[in-house]
């Protein structure tokens, strides 16, 4: 599953249809209405959004607040039960309260999914991750290079590599 930097609900679809969009794309899969109802509720509950939208599932997904839209996109991603959930700066376009809601949600979801978060926000990485990998660009147009990988607590408290220490301390980056 993929969650992008900016919330991207399908603008012409309802909240309900946004959640089941991925299921409909699976080749040859026929889904009964009763099954989709279960998936929608489970996914919206999993994204901590059900109580806020359960009475307006036919409303446009694009009509939600930014934080709600991002949680709708998370619900859409988890509806297909992926093994891995990739999140690209999932809270960078959100206000602090919505950011906290996303971080709390990540803590809950990581018990069910492997989550990979790409972020430049060192404080957020320290708060939500169990394991951290630090990549650095070799140069403009060059591929990145893995500098250090390990338990988040170790990376942030006593990094082994000077480049990692410089980055997390704010000396560069």
Structure, explained:
This protein is of the alpha/beta class. It has eight helices and five strands; from the N terminus they run βααααβαβαββαα. It has helices at 15-25, 33-46, 50-53, 66-79, 96-109, 122-128, 152-157, 162-168, and strands spanning 2-3, 84-88, 114-118, 131-137, 144-151. The longest helix is centred in the first third of the chain and has 14 residues, at 33-46. The model has no long low-confidence stretch (mean pLDDT 92).
**Percentage of residues in strands:** 15-25%
Silhouette: elongated
Order of helices and strands: EHHHHEHEHEEHH
Please name the CATH architecture of the largest domain: 3-Layer(aba) Sandwich
The helix content, as a percent range, equals: 40-55%
- Low-pLDDT parts are none
- Counted up, domains total 2
Give the N-terminus to C-terminus distance in angstroms. Answer: 28 Å
| CATH superfamily descriptor of the largest domain | P-loop containing nucleotide triphosphate hydrolases
Count of individual beta strands? 5
Structural class: alpha/beta
Major β-sheet profile: 3 strands, parallel
What integer value in Å does the Rg equal?
18 Å
Might you state the CATH topology name of the largest domain? Rossmann fold
- Reading side by side through the largest sheet, how are the strands ordered? 1-2-3
Mean pLDDT: 92
CATH C-level category of the largest domain:
Alpha Beta
């Amino acid at each position: 599953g993929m969650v992008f930097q900016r919330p991207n609900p399908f603008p012409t679809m309802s909240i309900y249809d946004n959640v089941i969009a991925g299921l409909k794309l699976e080749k040859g899969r026929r889904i009964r209405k009763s099954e989709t109802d279960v998936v929608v509720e489970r996914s919206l509950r999993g994204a901590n959004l059900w109580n806020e939208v359960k009475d307006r599932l036919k409303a446009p997904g694009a009509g939600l607040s930014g934080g709600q839209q991002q949680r709708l996109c998370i619900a859409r991603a988890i509806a297909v039960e992926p093994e891995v959930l990739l999140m690209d700066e999932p809270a960078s376009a959100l206000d602090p309260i919505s950011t906290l809601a996303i971080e709390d949600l990540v803590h809950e979801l990581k018990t069910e999914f492997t989550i990979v978060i790409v972020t430049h926000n060192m404080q957020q990485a320290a708060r939500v991750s169990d394991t951290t990998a630090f990549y650095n660009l070799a140069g403009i147009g060059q591929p990145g290079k893995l500098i250090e990988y390990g338990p988040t607590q170790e990376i942030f408290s006593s990094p082994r590599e000077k480049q990692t220490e410089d980055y997390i301390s704010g000396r560069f980056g």
